[in-house]
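Changelog-adjacent note: as of this version, every example in the card shows the full chain rather than a window. The one below runs 415 residues end to end.
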Amino acid sequence: MPTEIKVPQLGESITTATLARWLKHEGDAVAADEPLAELETDKVTVEVNAPSAGVLTAIAVAEGDEVEVGAVLATLTEGGGKAKPEERPAANPSGGVNPPPRPSGPVARPAAAPPPAQAAATHAALPAAAKLMAENKVTAAQIGAGAGKGGRITKGDVLAFLENGAAAPKAAPAAKAPRELEAGEERVRMTRLRRTIAQRLKDAQNNAAMLTTFNEVDLSAVIALRNEYRDAFEKKHQGARLGFMSFFVRAAIVALQEFPAVNAEIDGDDIIYKHYVHMGIAVGGPNGLVVPVIRNADRMGFAEIEKTIADFGKRAHAGTLKLEELTGGSFSITNGGVYGSLMSTPILNPPQSAILGMHKIQERPVAIAGKIEIRPMMYLAVSYDHRIVDGKEAVSFLVRIKESIEDPRRLLLDL
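Full-length structure tokens:
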């Protein structure tokens, strides 16, 4: 019995995806729950699995096509079956198997609706009316039946249509033609994730009054504390390593509770204050940067935070993060220091109002009690939306984080 394979629900506010690639092709026998295709959404790659064992008898969407939730991707005939010999993947000289080819020939699609001009073919325009319609970019379908014999459109019908306030449709701007490639250049289409990242970052710059404030922090106390208790910590909390991120997450939580505007967001003419901290942690994956969210991080201790961050990192590289794990953050932290960045201005992650940027730990000479000492220092940056966060709040927020890191006992005593 044929079963339609459809685009599954993709998560909050996501209605479309791009069919990245087929893992099977027409005629292949598949097992229940075996991956058939990969869908690329704005955030992650999602596999579409076979609901039951059978044969993939028809593919309706080609690789690279954009599809909506609920759209039919393919048809599966349940039961056993063998793949068509001529469609089996060909072995290559190295002994491996070539990837399944893209569906050949035209892809089955719903019949397109006739263009407006055809739909209104019975309402032909008289010559004078046709000229006036062309000048004002009006179609017969917009006017409908005219006053002329047989419903033909007259000049009076066109004038009446224009006088009634119907605006002539504006011509669509001509698409910019791609430039010709020069020797040594290659054109590669942006992935859906990369396009979304580019658009959202540009929107953040365009829509927010974004400013950045900087400070530096001495990590001597945190490093000493880690060196003293790392082994005992990891022995007690199996699977958790005592890293720097948990200190900064806890320090940010303390500061957010003291300065709630930094954890809020703008919604129209309102400000939404949040009595929780859903902490976004930026991690690099194979397809770009993603920001999974530690929900209710303000209720977590160091060990739970470290385990969650480590799990996010592994699954980001494996591409197995869930869509619901990438939404709903109230504040974010990004660590460019792992890539060697000494200082940067992080961009907001809308609709959040602020983001903390960590950077490389570098030993530098600093003045301590009138003496020059070499200390492990890090530059910190907080980018914020000046529409909701005042400069004084942003600076004080960052100073609060600095104080907590330079004296981590404050975090343990809730000071």
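Structural remarks: Residues 81-91, 93-97, 102-122 have pLDDT under 50 and may be disordered.
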